[in-house]
Fold these 2 entries.
Entry 1:
Amino acid sequence: MAQVSLRKVVKEYEGGVQAVKGIDLEIADHEFVVLVGPSGCGKSTTLRMIAGLEEISGGDIAIGGQVVNDIPPRDRDIAMVFQNYALYPHMTVFDNMAFGLTLRKFPKDEIRRRVEHAARILDIGTLLERKPKALSGGQRQRVAMGRAIVRNPKVFLFDEPLSNLDAKLRVQMRTEIKKVHQTVKTTTIYVTHDQVEAMTLADRVVVMNHGVIEQVGPPQELYHNPTTRFVAGFIGSPAMNFIPARLANGGGELSVQIGNEISLAVPSARRERYAPHLNRELLFGIRPEHLTERKNDGKPGVATMEAVPDVTEPMGMETLVHFQLAGVPICARVDPTAPAEPGVRMPFSVDMNNMHLLDAESGRVL
Amino acid sequence: MSGASITAAGAAAPAYRGTGSLRRERRWALIGAYIALAVFVIFFITPPFHMLVTSLKSSAEIADLSSNPWIVKRPTLSNYWELLTQGNYLIHFRNSLIVTLSVVAITMVVSTVAAFALARMRFWGSAVLATGVFLTYLVPETLLFIPLFQILGGIGLYNNLISMILIYPTLTVPFCTWIMIGYFSSIPRELDEAALIDGANHFQMLWKIFVPVALPGILAAMIFAFTVSWAQFLYPMAFLVSSENMVLTVGIVSDLIRADTFVWGKIMAGALMAAAPPLLVYAFLMDYYIAGLTAGATKG
């Protein structure tokens, strides 16, 4: 097991296209780090550079303190699980899992012991003599993980391993992966475009966009304290609402002005922080879960407003209400019993304790 | 009540008509397919059948123009027996086997390694080289045999079986390489990457992953190389002169056609027996050929 360091890592393809633009990242021993971001953000390229499957155009990658830039994948002591499993179709499950150990000339007894141990962890002991074509998608993914576990490598690399599974199996396998990490505790780097996977699995989440790291932090920190508009919008589902607004001062009280009609009081705890941004063009960020049906619970820092829903989406445990505000589409999360009907004006509570203000130009969270 | 039953019957009727029409269309399609297949089978089976009939006739019966050429009155195996016990037929058969098996072996080794390099290793000019390999296949052998004649004469291999083993791969390697480039390219790249991470070098990746996974493609190439080598006529005709060095294709022609005398019974018997090895190869390898080993390699 080992820590992984990325220092000013660059990947430039022919024609000068930069997929990764000089990223720095320190991953601690035993840590589970998830690289998340939209397609083309450079997360998979970064993972493949760590694996040695892509050459590095600039910077250094170190595994366990040793710079591995010029070391081939087989000598990096890493194991990788691919999106489409990449099982050897002509080999049995046992041979698939044993392949790496056989090439490294492990004794047969040791190979059998390790494969059976991994099979027990993953509950695939009865499948060892089957060929991959006789397995379901979930079973194949377990075998792919087993192939990684038996090697007992310094680092596990996962490249969108759950993307090919159906929604139910994905949730199940997500739990399995977390359980496996809790058991073997190997340093893990996991790539996904699914922010739910990132939030549920990671010790720390690395949000990437356009080849750079936007923010690194534990899931809760990214959720509550995003530093950029991209992170604020990417983490959380449904995404955070961003509404053009202005900060006004009325008799010493700061308020968020949306258009001419809506004024939402800023909690006193935030006044000092936002005061320098008076009368500037800003974006008011509020998550759907902090924009609910009106609650008369007297909670401090909660403002009220009214809007006419365009669409309601009952989800069972909650109802999503969509409406327009200052020309942008807004989503609110209300209790399923709340009287939300399209075309009927309804009152909302806005939990300003969880509000965000962003610079409209730079997208930085203030 | 009655209204309801009328409605139900009315609703069911169009569905029934639709199904019946589909079934009828399918029946006609099947009949058409069987007729087309029957025509093809008759077209392709007729020549071998005529060969078989002729090979079972004595020379006197063949020469009797009043008899029906499709019917044997007094069947005899004398043509087969004489071919196998007299003359050089067995020597020609052995020579054909030596040349063909050697050529298949050389072709498979060269083509597999070349195709692996061209399909998977990124190096300068690899794409041009892959196209170039195929272009060499397009040069007709009738253009090549005169310069080849000079080269083989120069290195002392004229009228030598080894010259065939050296020349035939110029016909088989390009096409086999091309077939295998296609097969290797269809293997998901993640399989190589998984093998690299598992600790395989390029040779192990080729031998332990690519060859087994691309077996259908390799067998297709092998069948092609075998057929081309076994049936090659022009080069042995040009470069082999003594009967004991000849392969079957030219051996039959040179030994059984003397001036304007055609020993038809033996020619047909010899040709039928010569057709047996390719038939066996096809029969044996076809199952593997259609096995589709890549199923389950990746998602799906």
Entry 2:
Amino acid sequence: MSLHTKSIAELSKGLANKEFSSVELTEHVLNRIQTHQPSLNAYVTVTRDRALADAKRADERRAAGESLPLLGVPIAQKDIFCTDGILTTCSSKMLANFVAPYDATVVAKLSAAGTVLTGKTNMDEFAMGSSNETSYYGPVANPWDIARVPGGSSGGSAAAVAARLVPAATATDTGGSIRQPAAFVGVSGIKPTYGRVSRYGMIAFASSLDQAGVLAPSALDCAYLLEAMSGFDPNDSTSVAQPVPNYVESLSQASLKGVRVGILKEFFAEGLDPAIGALVHEAMDVMKAQGATLVDVSCPSLPLSVPTYYVVAPAECSSNLSRFDGVRFGHRCKDPKDLVDLYKRSRAEGFGAEVKRRILTGTYVLSAGYYDAYYLKAQRVRRLIANDFAKAFESVDMLLSPTAPTTAFKIGTKHEDPVTMYLNDIYTIGANLAGLPALSIPCGFANGLPAGVQLIGSHFSESALLSAAHVYQRETNFHLQVPAAFS
Amino acid sequence: MSSVLPNGWEMVVGLEIHAQLATHSKIFSSAATAYGAEPNTQACLVDLGFPGVLPVLNRQAVGFAIKFGLAVGASITDRSVFARKNYFYPDLPKGYQISQYELPIVAKGQLVVTFEDGSQKTIGITRAHLEEDAGKSLHEGFKGQSGIDLNRAGTPLLEIVSEPDMRSAAEAVAYLKKVHTLVRYLEICDGNMQEGSFRCDANVSVRKVGQSAFGTRCEIKNVNSFRYVEKAINYEALRQIEVIEGGGTIVQETRLYDAQKDETRSMRSKEDANDYRYFPDPDLLPVAIDPSWIEDVRASLPELPDAKAARFQQEFELSAYDALVLTASRELASFYEQVVDGVGRAGAKLAANWVMGDFLGFLNRDGLELAQAPVNAQALAGLINRIQDQTISGKLAKTVFESMWSTQKSADVIIDEQGLRQVTDSSAIEAAIDAVMTANPKQLADFRSGKDKLFGFFVGQVMKATGGKANPEMLNDLLKQKLSGQ
């Protein structure tokens, strides 16, 4: 078996047993990145020197007797996480010159865990998009069909993992930005509970929804990274002071016996590609065969997720992105004639169309006279959606649905129609609005393209979700499929 | 209070006071708050609004706000919320100020203000909320550009909003001084107006006496001394009356006071005003305040100015106004109490006169802080004791005090050195009187023929003869006897 198809558990074992060194592994990974970057465009920045230095240090630490599970394992960071001394662009022209002066907590934690940083992955500009087409650095290709999108906003991380350029990558999820790409490229992705992972150093899109997570081939791989990333951070007031379970260890006793899985009625309705519906039903059968009880569940407010999200997220984004004003960092227009000109042109030139659309929408819904009708009402609906979920979790342990209504679409086909694009997140947004953990795992192929099934859990039930996914992946091999061009 | 306005008009004033809280670090970051550092040396990534950074609330700032709330009898909101106030300005790094909007930490309090004539008025406090200060824009010396100093960005502020309860500039100043006194008592703000630690905006409108509706108000920004607050408000009220009487209407606007020209001028009108698009800051959780925390703060409150003034009135038999002046700051009140300790309860009134009179007068004259005074409480008590035991007269004491101020010697040393000990030996005084009477036969005859006014002449002459040291009461008595020929 070649190095790039090994799971994190296998890599960890191989490094520990000196079957290969981190430097060897990292060189292999860097070579693959170099080979496939032109066709995939998964990275914005490849940090070759940094990666080799990290790998060398990891090998030295291993030699000195250290045995952290991730010591020497290469990863990629979504370009939304600040990395000290390294370009951090959020895939925006606005930050095309921004070298972060500090590490995000996620970056610092993964460094402390001994991972090797291979680079920063491409994404939708400021994480606003569902196809990775809004990136200033150009679209990312789906490894299963390079004419298609990898989903978004974490498209670069998803494509890199699917093509096995890197064993795992960080990602962020504000309305589905981990799970929808995971489904589109056939990998596993988890968005933990809001507050589980620190947001410090993660460039904010919509602060009350943003949450960092992982993309990796399997649920077990995800568990390794999530364990290293999670935990309370005094620099993030919204991170939660709850002990981090040993996710990896919990999977060794994974079982679906007696687990009540709720089938979300609203998410099997009109708009779902029937081929995906069929695959999800097959996944339900697998889980049932493993001892799960399937229960029909209704969350009547859930269909309001999309409109609610497209008020709340733009509102927060309009304020969060005000700091990009051309004064202290980032893009500044040439020869501003006065302050207003500096603001207007720097922002007009620095932001792409989708970012501007959301800033405008957000500014509108917060304006005097519209606040109550939009922002306040959306917050009330958000509360109803959270209540629906809470009620559902009184009778089931987790909820199951398709991750996205379609498989990956062709680059350029939805770009001009934002509303159709927004509907791609219809099944994923609810978990963000309620702050719930959710994951997506591959459940087969519809017309040759990967499809995903989503599991949503109650707050801090990541172990249960990962366990269910792990049991499913013990019985299936969809997560082990690698697109032929990258195998 | 008397009004400076023309007959038939009254003004309505409300104040928004910004008190910088004396925390060591900023409200949402760990950068230092000390004043006067090199530009941009006390601003960390959070203060600079860098991508990805997040605010973390300073617990001490919350404790200070609770302190203030309790001191003005307000309720402390058990779940207050931080909101973003969105607007673009270069000294506002994030493009929004973190403030409080719908749910401020301190709601509904009041302060009783005492005026010089002893009358009192209760001023309502609508709310007080926590927020971060902005940086400073420096418009001079950068050749067509502006300099931005973000040292002040993120310094905690308590914005104290009054009800429109004041009806004159003097009332507004009295209220402002009261708040100033209070925040310094509580040690939550250093009160330094020059450095901008204590600033105030005034909302001013005018109306006809008897009219219940308020007139259109104008907000006067950032007036940085008590004197200017008074002048700015008076100027603004008179300006508004002039506009109205000239057939015009007042436009709601923000105005800037120019101390040099003593006038206010328009800064921006309501139409140009920003829509701040307030919404709850999703980076900060609501501030839930445990009742036990409030009780801990309550237990730690010092004796407050009102209570202290009431005690001074009662214990030391002072007038309401004297008690107010002496309790204007914790330091002054403590100074006064130390003087009383040194002179005894019986000398409390005399001590009050000395502290408020010569002592504060000299401090003012020399522009000194209390702590810098060359005469300390013990020394002042030493002087007052010499008056009380009749070693020197009150009048001579003023000369002694002046020497004490310039030489920092004790009253006793100066009295001895200058031989100022009062003459209380009646035979010595009688001898002096006899000599004066002999030397001034004409005046003596005139006095005895009914020119009572000449009594003062004889007092003066005898005092002169004794070098001012004759005990005034003895001199009076003896002179009366001698002059009447007894």
